[in-house]
């Protein structure tokens, strides 16, 4: 029997493109299927969650995950990465240092525990973090085969100093925004946020996708360009940014 996106709790956003909202923190994971190649966008908050995403991706596409894009270095997006074995991993320039420096990994572990992740689970995931093999400074095009190309774009800083967006061309075009955009609550600005650059990062997202694209936030429901623009304006007002 053919497994559908809906069978596994995924939302089909466009042809060969889907997303799921993971439990507890409502974190988004994305999936883009090509001809024999599969891109997973973010890996969840634990090794078990990453393994589940990897297995679901194979069930949905018939192929293993060949590429993994990490939108930013927060535990709920990266702690499952080590479970996505044999994938080429991509992140924004600088994210490698966050995932390898002892003090940064300790902060990620502590942040996960503060938010309710079991301490042993957080410890295991933090210890197994490895830096992406491919660092994106501008834009990077991935060819997934079958005419499917995906653009990785370093659009930050904003939510963090290392924000990566993923543009999937098509009809409609789909932009995976990471936590630069949040729909289920006010965008979170932690100590690693760069508020003075955040509105400009959202302008770069809008330039990538255009007016008719679907924008997939790091948390919450899929939104349109008007929502992203309104969130940009709200962030600029919140942090007193002019640009």
TrEMBL record:
CDD domains: metallo-hydrolase-like_MBL-fold (cd16282). The keyword Zinc does not apply. Residues 26-219 form the Metallo-beta-lactamase domain. One of its GO terms (molecular function) is hydrolase activity. Signal peptide: none annotated. Gene3D superfamilies: Ribonuclease Z/Hydroxyacylglutathione hydrolase-like. Keywords: Hydrolase. InterPro entries: Metallo-B-lactamas (IPR001279), NDM-1-like (IPR050855), RibonucZ/Hydroxyglut_hydro (IPR036866). The keyword Hydrolase applies. PANTHER family: ACYL-COENZYME A THIOESTERASE MBLAC2 (PTHR42951:SF4), METALLO-BETA-LACTAMASE DOMAIN-CONTAINING (PTHR42951). This is MBL fold metallo-hydrolase. It comes from Streptomyces cahuitamycinicus.
